[in-house]
Amino acid sequence: MSGREAGWSGGDRAMAAGKLMLAWVALLWLLEVVDVISGHALDGLGITPRTPSELIDVVPSAFIHFGFAHLAANTVPLLVLGFLAALAGLRRFLLVCALIILVDGVGVWLISPAHTNTAGASGLIFGLFGFLLTTGFLERRPLGILTGILIAAIWGGSILAGLAPTQSGVSWQGHLLGLAAGVAAAFVFRRRPAAPPELIR
Fold first, then answer.
1. Domain 8-188 in CATH: superfamily?
2. 5: Cα separation from own chain's centroid
């Protein structure tokens, strides 16, 4: 948490997290409107595997969707999981998202089937799920552990289904890589409790 955020109340953090995620999702919807108006010109920002020029699309691909149904399916989990992850600090949240998007995007570029085009926020969603599921246990925070258990109960079935390689038109590779990147982010950005003060006699 930054110095500025350290003085925030719980209400301040919730308000900031809510505004950030509403703005994030609004941007995704705006981009999809632009995509439709432009005759789906933005779909080219998806990732085509192992094409060197496509590496520049690793980040943009996380903000592009193939139709409003695709975006609608991602909207609620991104809002909720993003909000929960951002409550602990916006700076760490943005770093976590950056790590997930980069690792997931590069991984998709490396291992997805040839002649495919992968885009969407689902890799980030799976990453935030993995991050929230892991970080509470790592940091031994009761509220974080409870949050992880609740999101596992709500979205665990959908997450497992999204990892199945039998679904046509679904990037299980992107989902798996996003999940792994989120777990890794929990370790990379782990917060350790402050050392107790030294007792001097």
1. Rhomboid-like (1.20.1540.10)
2. 21
**Which three-class secondary structure state does DSSP give residue 87?**
coil
The 10s digit of each residue's pLDDT in 71-107 is 999 999 999 999 999 998 999 999 999 999 999 999 9
Residue 194 per-residue DSSP state: P
Kindly give, in sequence order, each residue whose CB lies less than 8 Å from that of residue 114, ignoring residues fewer than 6 positions away. Answer: 49, 50
Structural domain boundaries of the chain? 8-188
pTM of the model: 0.91
Residue 69 one-letter amino acid: A
25-30 contacts, C-beta under 8 A, 24 or more apart: 25/75, 25/78, 25/79, 27/63, 28/63, 28/65, 28/71, 28/74, 28/75, 28/78, 28/121, 29/71, 29/75
pLDDT digits (tens, 9 = 90+) for 95-150: 999 999 999 999 999 999 999 999 999 999 999 999 999 999 999 999 999 999 99
